[in-house]
Amino acid sequence: MDRRDFLKKGSLAAVAAGVSASTVANAASVIKWKMVTTWPKNFPGLGTGANNLAKLITEMSGGRLQVKVYGAKELVPAFEVFDAVSRGTAEMGHASAYYWKGKVPEAQFFSTMPFGMTANEMNGWIYYGDGQKLWDESYKPFGVIGRPAGNTGVQMGGWFNKEINSLADMKGLKMRIPGLGGEVLKRLGGTPVNLPGGELFTALTSGTIDATEWVGPYNDLAFGLYKAAKYYYYPGFHEPGTILEALINRKAFEALPKDLQAIVENACRVVNMDMLAEYSARNPGALEQLVNKHHVQLRAYPDDVLAQLRKVSADVAADLAAQNPAAKKIHASYMAFLEASRKYSRISDLAYLTARDGG
Ligand code: CA
Question: What is the CA(213)–ligand 1 centre distance, in A?
Answer without folding.
Answer: 6
